Amino acid sequence: MSTATRSRPLTAPSPHAPAAGGARRRSRTRTRLELALLLGPGLVLFTAFVLIPIGVAAYYSLYSWNGFGPLTEFVGLGNYVDAFSGDVFQSAIGHNLIIVVLSIVVQLPLSIGLALLLNRRLRGRTFLRMVVFAPYVLSEAVTAVIWLLILQPGGFIDELLRGAGLGFLVRQWLADPKIVLYTLFVVITWKYIGFGVILLLAGLQGIPAELREAAALDGASGWQATRHVVLPLLGPTIRVWIFLSVIGSLQLFDLVWIMTLGGPANASATMVSYLTDHGFKRYEFGFGSAVAVILFIICFTFALLYQRFALRRDTEGALTRAVS
Amino acid sequence: MRSPHKLSVALAAAATLMLAACSGSGGDASANGPVTLTWWHNRTTEPMKSIWQGIADDFHKAHPDVSFTVEPLQNEQFQTKVPLALQGNTPPDIFQQWGGGSLVSQLSSGKIADITQASSSWIGPLGQAAQGWQSGGKQYGVPYQMHAVGFWYRKDLFATAGVTSPPSTLDELNAAVAKLKTANLVPIAVGGKDRWPDAFYFNYFAIRQCSVDSLKTAVEKKDFSDPCFTKAGENLKAFLDTKPFQDGFVGTPAQQGAGSSAGMLANGKAAMELQGDWNPDVMQSLSEDKDLDSKIGWFPFPAVPGGQGDPNSVLGGGDGFSCTTRAAKACADFLGHLVSEDVQKKLAATGSGLPVHPAAVASLKTETHKKISEYVSKAPHLQFYFDIAMPTNVGQALNDAIANFFAGQGGPDTIVKSVSQAAAGNK
């Protein structure tokens, strides 16, 4: 795909290309004006509601502050030290990492499999696609409440298992500290698998059928064609999915907060649930800000590195080079 | 970056408020003259929403100089909105106040009005109920209704299991638990997911174990090192070892859905629940049973042998309001109106809490609530929930330690230590 992009003549004459120098100058002013007009409001909002608050949070994070009165108790990096040395925050980071790894190891192959399946001509394909995608449309809060009911002791899942003669599999899905994180992961997968499938389906649409046919003519089996032709061409889509999945996993909150509040005994605490617990429930706004800054740095670092090393090939020309 | 976003937005809102503050507003309204009070309360649903509005309208009719802008807010919003508002220069004039340690935390904003003088003429009948809204001998708010925690139970399930009378000692409670288990019933439901219901148990074991003086000192110094608290934890451990709760209780919510602890009691899936006086309303909303009230009874937390605490001391708290400094006089007068006999009778009739004015007890909706109210008024000591009584960070740390203990982590010493550690600023 990148080859195709590169071979495009970069200096294609625009139909409205200005002819004279004066017109070009005027057009440059106009371009600037357009840029200011189009980017300005966005920039102002972004600065006011993203950049400044991040700065303010970083500032608050240096104080021990309960949210009332002036900032008087300067503790330097004390809040950061406290966060990293706390068992609960350490395990919260661990839980986030488990979700990150599980997402890639379980959700990715599952999404690819489903996408390949739903990309074939089969009866009721549109319906099946809709079924797979439907959970993604639900809000996390609604998903959490639905699953809370399904998973409650003696609820739908338990009865289903018992009805199928699998009663021995029944567990305390949300109450057993050893299981709860994996229960949540199943719910996350249920909710987000549709997004991965749709993304990958779109990617599959971009792979010309001729390539598969050519591979078949060369004697490649169905699996070989998939493995050596389709999957490599799906690479950009997969890389984007991984990026979104990791960022989402690191910021996991709504589902956890509604279903378990990070419990029992912090067994399902994530970085953001920990942040909410301490920042808002305990009125430790300085400390909460420090946790928020840590989370921001983790996500930001990951995003930069991933963009630099994994997504570079895919975005080259679009992001890394000035478009003239 | 969704979630840091949320925080960012909150912080930005704070910054905006501060900016707004700089531009100056209003002016001092404490002098006589027309004043409009902004009132934040947490009753977003009927019937209380209209009742509060009606009370404000009545007050305005009697005092034409005082008008109201009533703003009902979701209960959970107070956690974030109040700190932001108190950082700004235009906080609400009256706002929901649960007293205790969170009130003390708010004092450092300098915006909470001292209404000791203004309330002196009418606060008498409230008795010890008003203490939770005091700090350093000064009155910084007033409760309009109190709450008390005790055991709610199903009379029908007690009868099925052959429990003839509500337990009045721990031994009797243990015996009842055993009988209910034999009858294949869940003896007690607890909403362990929400953590605060777990805390009720530790609180009560401590109230029964510790003398009133030890309780007061411990809360004031945020230090639970008195051995009676460890003993309370051990008693709690022994009680947990009898496995009195439903399966998977650490994941059960307290009030949401029929599978919650309140829902279990309402639907006859459990025989008891240690909960506040508000429980009947919660249960009714989770059950189709129109005759629920007659099936539900109440008894106080039983006496614990060997304890220093009075078996009649009660665990509770209350709902109240604080005034901010801008219009403190008018606000205090209004709070006086809220706790007056007439308004108290009106509030008591709604059944949303226990009246603070003794004369209003008779207006309570059910006999059970009258019984609770009587029990509270006779209690030698009303212990505020520990998590509310102490500063928020300490109280929540204690609740978390108790909840972890319910989930099998830590011991009595961890609970005791959590308090002093949080008080020392450890996370």
From TrEMBL, chain A:
Coiled-coil regions, chain positions: none
Pfam families assigned to the protein according to its UniProt record, in alphabetical order: BPD_transp_1
TM annotation in the entry: 35-60, 97-118, 130-150, 179-202, 240-265, 285-306
Listed GO biological process terms: transmembrane transport
Localization per Swiss-Prot or TrEMBL: Cell membrane
Keywords: Cell membrane, Membrane, Transmembrane, Transmembrane helix, Transport
CDD domains with a match to the protein in the record: TM_PBP2
InterPro entries (UniProt xref): ABC_transporter_permease (IPR051393), MetI-like (IPR000515), MetI-like_sf (IPR035906)
GO cellular component, one term: plasma membrane
Membrane topology: Multi-pass membrane protein
Region feature (Disordered): 1-27
Residue ranges annotated for the ABC transmembrane type-1 domain, each copy included: 93-306
Major subcellular location class: membrane
Low complexity composition bias: residue spans: 11-22
PANTHER family attached to this UniProt entry: ABC TRANSPORTER PERMEASE PROTEIN, INNER MEMBRANE ABC TRANSPORTER PERMEASE PROTEIN YCJO
Family stated for the protein in its record: Belongs to the binding-protein-dependent transport system permease family.
Protein name: Sugar ABC transporter permease
Species for this entry: Lentzea aerocolonigenes (Lechevalieria aerocolonigenes)
UniProtKB/TrEMBL annotation, chain B:
Keywords carried by this UniProt record: Signal
Database matches in Gene3D superfamilies: Periplasmic binding protein-like II (3.40.190.10)
Record carries keyword Signal: yes
InterPro entries: Bact_solute-bd_prot1, SBP
Residues in the signal sequence: 1-20
Record-given protein name: Sugar ABC transporter substrate-binding protein
Protein species of origin: Lentzea aerocolonigenes (Lechevalieria aerocolonigenes)
Record lineage: Bacteria, Bacillati, Actinomycetota, Actinomycetes, Pseudonocardiales
